[in-house]
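ok here's Ribulose-phosphate 3-epimerase:
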Amino acid sequence: MKPLLIAPSILSADFSRLGEEIRAVDEAGADWIHLDVMDGHFVPNITFGPPIVAAVRGHSKKVFDCHLMIEPCDPYLEAFAKAGCDIITVHAEATTHLDRSLQAIRALGKKAGVSLNPSTPESVIEYVLDRLDLILLMTVNPGFGGQKFIHPVVEKVRRVKRMIGDRDIHIEIDGGVTPETAPLVVEAGADVLVAGSAVFKGGTPDHYAANMTAIRRS
Ligand code: DX5
Ligand code: ZN
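and the structure:
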C-alpha cells in the first residue's frame, strides 16, 4: 500500500502572498503542492499560468502537482514543464487525443496524470493505463474551491483501484476533501488527497499544520 499523501491546493491560499503561503504549507507538512490552472473556457474560472508557477517554484522543493483545467492543453505542456511542474495532469474531457497528450508530458520528462470530471466514466482511461503515473478523480465539478463532495465518485475510486491492478499509479482525489470525506476515498483506494479550503481555513501556518493533521488522522 502507498503512504497517504496530502497535497494542499493553493487555490485557497492568499494570492497576494503566494510564495509565503506555499512555504507555509510546505513547512506545515504538505507532501505535494497542488496548483490549479484554470482558463475560463474549460472551467468557469481563471487562475494563473506558467509565469506564476515559475515565480513560486523557488519557494518549495516539494513536488509541484499541476492540475491543468485548460482546453486545449497540448500547446501549453512545454511551458508548464519549463515553469517547474513535476506532475502534469490533463483532463480527459479537454483533449481529443489523450494518448498523445500523455506521451507529450512524458517526453518532456514529467510525470503524466489524467483527471476525470465526476460524470466521466473510468472506461476512458482503460487503454492509456501504461502511460499514466497518476489518476485524478474529481469529487466536485472543477472550477472553484469550497464545493460539496460528490459521493457517487467513491464507487469510481473503487473501480479505478481495481482497474490499475499492480501498476504503480497514484489515485488522487480533488474536491470537498475534509476529515469527514477523506476516510471514504482512502478506504476505496485513494492515496493522494488534494484539499484547499480544509487546509487553508484559519489562515495561519499553525492552522495549516493542524488542518492537515486532522485529515491524516481521520
Ligand atoms: C477545483 C480544484 C480543486 C479545489 C479544491 O476545481 O481542482 O483543487 O481547489 O478545493 P476544496 O478542497 O476547497 O474543495
Ligand atoms: Zn485541482
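+1. The radius of gyration is 16 Å.
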